[in-house]
Design a protein that fits this description.
148 residues; alpha+beta; 5-stranded mixed sheet; 4 helices; 5 strands
């Protein structure tokens, strides 16, 4: 006599196991549910995925340098992130990481919340790679982190 397993979801290489709880107003929730019903067969997760994939916009802000009236735009640069793996530290280079640069005086600034989020995500990615028995990369391209 053999025991049959119950059918379930097939094994997924890249499972969708992360939930994203966010607070929103009643009106925003209503809009989310209606747009999901209209465009994605009531699948709010799919609507959010599509919205995130298609979102893009130009970002600029005034330069903070004394005496400069230029605008700061996002430009790609390289940065280093320190990741702790056990008792070891790994320095990972992040290529194409966007920072603000003034078009007039060349002053460069980075948003600290953004930098902290990049650091957290790189740390999570390194942990994921190690759990998959893969090597810690020496270089990560920022644009690779922005894709699925």
């Amino acid at each position: 006599m053999s025991i049959k397993r119950k059918p379930g979801r097939p094994y997924a290489k890249n499972s969708r196991s992360i939930t994203v709880p966010h607070r929103m107003t009643r009106e925003e929730n209503r809009m989310l549910r209606l747009k999901a019903a209209l465009y994605t067969n009531s699948n709010t997760s799919e609507l959010i995925r599509q919205a995130v994939m298609s979102f893009s916009r130009e970002v600029s802000m005034p330069c903070m340098e004394v005496g400069c009236s230029g605008n700061m735009k996002l430009v790609p640069t390289s940065d280093q992130v320190l990741v702790h793996v056990g008792s070891n530290q790994h320095e990972i280079k992040i290529d194409e990481m966007p920072i603000y640069e003034c078009e007039r005086c060349g002053n460069q600034e980075i948003d600290l919340k953004f930098a902290a989020e990049v650091e957290t995500i790189v740390d999570e990615e390194v942990g994921f790679l190690l759990n998959q028995r893969k090597e810690v990369p020496l270089v990560i391209n920022f644009n690779d982190l922005m894709t699925v």
